[in-house]
Structure formats: C-alpha cells, structure tokens
Amino acid sequence: MDGLIVIDKPTDLTSHDVVARVRHILHERRIGHTGTLDPFATGVLVLLLGRATRLAQFLSGEDKEYDAIIRLGYATETGDRTGTRIDGPNDTNLGNWNEQEIEAALQSLRGWIDQVPPMYSAKKRGGEKLYELARRGEAVDREPVRVCIHEFTAIKADGQLFKNNLDGTFDFRARVVCSSGTYVRTLAEDFGRRLSVSAHLAELRRTRVGDFRVENAVTLDDLKTSFAEESLGSLVMPPGAALSRLPFVHLSGQDVRNASHGREVKLARSEWADGENVKMCDAEDQLIAVGRYDAGAQLLHPHVVLSEK
What we know:
By secondary structure, the protein is of the alpha+beta class. The protein has helices spanning 15-26, 56-59, 99-107, 130-135, 184-194, 220-228, 253-260, and strands at 3-9, 31-33, 42-49, 64-72, 75-76, 85-86, 111-115, 124-125, 128-129, 145-154, 162-164, 170-178, 199-209, 212-213, 248-250, 265-266, 277-281, 287-294, 299-305. It has 3 domains: 3-60 and 214-238, Pseudouridine synthase, CATH 3.30.2350.10; 64-209, Pseudouridine synthase; 246-305, PUA domain (Archaeosine Trna-guanine Transglycosylase, Chain: A, domain 4), CATH 2.30.130.10. It has 7 helices and 19 strands. Strand 13 (199-209) and strand 14 (212-213) form a beta hairpin. Helix 1 (15-26) runs parallel beside helix 6 (220-228). The longest helix is centred in the first third of the chain and has 12 residues, at 15-26.
C-alpha cells in the first residue's frame, strides 16, 4: 500500500499514537507522519504509506494553517492548556482593549519574526530534548528561530473580538498561517505580552498543511470503516499527490527503466533551475522518482526512487 492519507487527528492522542492506530487498521508497517501535532491539538495530520514514506522530506517544510484560541488572563508552564497555571500580576485593563490595540499587537507579530522555542518542546540541547530538561525543572538558554507568520488575524464570533469566560479570562480566536517550525503556543504568549497580559494557547486546530485541507481529512473511525468495507481507494491518494507543487516530466519506457534503477535521464533543454526537484512520471502519471536537475549537463538525477519496475 503506497500513497498518502490525510487524517483529522482527534484530541488527546500524540501524532505517534495516530500512526500506531493507522498501522493497526491498515496492517501496514511502513507509515510515517510529516509534521507533529501536540496531543491536545486536532486537525490535519498527513500520513505517508509504504514507499511513499520516502517523500517525507518534501512535505516537512510546507506552510501550515491553524484555527487557534488564545486565552488571556494567565500563563501556563507549557504555553498551552495542558500545563500548570502560572498566575501573573493582575491587569486592570484585562478585557478593555480596543480594536486598534488588538490590530497593533497582531501586526507586530506578522512577517518574519524570531521565536524562542518553548522549554516544553522536542528541540534538542546537548543531545536531550528540551521537554526532558523542563520536566527535571531545568531551564536553559535557547537560540531564537526565524519563522514567518504569513497571516495572523482575528476570527470574530457574533461580531465580538473576545469571549468573556466570566472567570477573569478572555478568549481570542485567531487564524494563523505560518511557516513550518512555528510554535503557535509561543505566538499566543507573545500576543499576550503585546497586550501586557499573561496568555496561553487554549485550543488549536490545524486546518491545512500545504495543499491538504481539513475538509478532505478522514477520522480514524472513517478509516476503520472504509478498510472493513474495502473502499480505501477513495481515501488513499497516490504518492504523486504529495508533490503537487513540483514540476514534472513524462518519461519514455527506457527512461522509466533507467530512473527506476537510479540512473540519470538525459533531457532536452528546460526552464528548470539548476538543482530543482522534478517529478519523474511514466505515461500513466505514476510517480517513478524525484529527480534533481543538472542544468549544465541537462540531466535529471533520481535521488528518491519509488518505482520498483
């Protein structure tokens, strides 16, 4: 079973839990995901099956889109709702921000920004994951990471910017479109700082990864039912769907055989950039390999081969 499937991850499961369940449902050992979601988060989790797992490198850097709820009023150790509450100083202005102040805070966090990874993250320091250090009560300096926030905008419910939770906190719902590697938890905390109040991420739903949207995702229950009814064909996409943004070329029969064995393919002059990745397909649009273009020699060098022809 080679291909791609988009799962709507439920809450309270890790991304690895989802992979394990899909392995069990499909009886397929070779399954990998292309971008972790925190256990409390839901939404798009792109899984690669079989030989398509070789394509993970091309999806890991895709932009992401989220529907987030930022809770203003207190922070947590982890930056999200799963962490222990940290009470800060009372803010008499809590809930009294005007629309111009909110827009200024949002605008200050758009574009290229430097983010300091949270201590409760999987980034490594000296061979150990930061969250392992954090659980031991250790805090270390972290180098900021450059990320791009393409969009950070309010989602108004009933025309209101905030929902008053009547417990001293307010919820702000936002749409976030960002580069890979962005921590929305950190974005939530930084948004609170711009408003001079403590904040954390209360809810997070990933609505898109690259071209894959949550509207086209399936639940684990749907997947289980489809497998039992032998109707997986409508859910599992071909490997080439993972690379819809790459240029492609149709190969002749001999070139298909060459590419399948990792041998270079000679091409006529092309407009591709030197070093550009190109999908190498057969006459039926089946993905044979991903090649890297050598503009000087006018050759495609297969560096990820899927076909076993």
